[in-house]
Amino acid sequence: MNKVRVTRIFRFEAAHALYGYDGKCRHIHGHGYELHVTLLGEPLQDTNHPKQGMVMDFGDIKQLIHQHIIEPFDHALLLCRHSPFYALSAPLAEYSNRLVWLDYTPTCENLVIDFAQRIQAVLPGHVQLHHLTLYETPSSSASWYAEDQR
Questions:
Q1: b or e along 32-55 (b: 16 or more beta carbons within 10 Å of the residue's beta carbon)?
Q2: What is the value of pTM for the model shown?
Q3: pLDDT, tens digit, for every residue of 21-78?
Q4: Cα separation of 139 and 129, whole Å?
């Protein structure tokens, strides 16, 4: 058995506000996020298969992450639906269709948990999500590891 980890890096922009927070981040502000997605699996050994030698094609990883993470979150305003911001949903919707209402406060930590759940739900059975690291700034990140969930 030869397990290999493969990683693909994605970037997207998003704004958020942390309602109830005791610092500046309670105000709407934006980040240039960087998401590192690491998968674990065995390289395919079927010499007749076009993906032979791959854990998962990097292009397939890109398509999956773009569909389930980047497209919904890129250039969106992320807000918790259980905050007073939700009362502004109709007026905000007049100015943007890029509102993402979440059931949690959109901290880096909560976002990486959500992303892990979304990715695990759509991964093919022959690979596992090993870990994610979400950089909110170049020097601040949150990581999710599958081994920590056991």
A1: ebbbebbbbbeebeeeeeeeeeeb
A2: 0.94
A3: 999 999 999 999 999 999 999 999 999 999 999 999 999 999 999 999 999 999 999 9
A4: 24
Contact 76/100 with Cβ under 8 angstroms?
A: yes
Q: How far is Cα 94 from Cα 91, in angstroms, rounded to an integer?
A: 5
Q: Is residue 141 a contact partner of residue 108, using CB atoms and an 8 Å limit?
A: yes
Nearest to 103 by CA among 119, 120, 117, 92: 117
What pLDDT does residue 10 have? 98
The rounded distance, in Å, linking the Cα atoms of 91 and 60 is 38
Structural domains of the chain, ranges and CATH numbers in brackets:
9-35+57-149 (3.30.479.10)
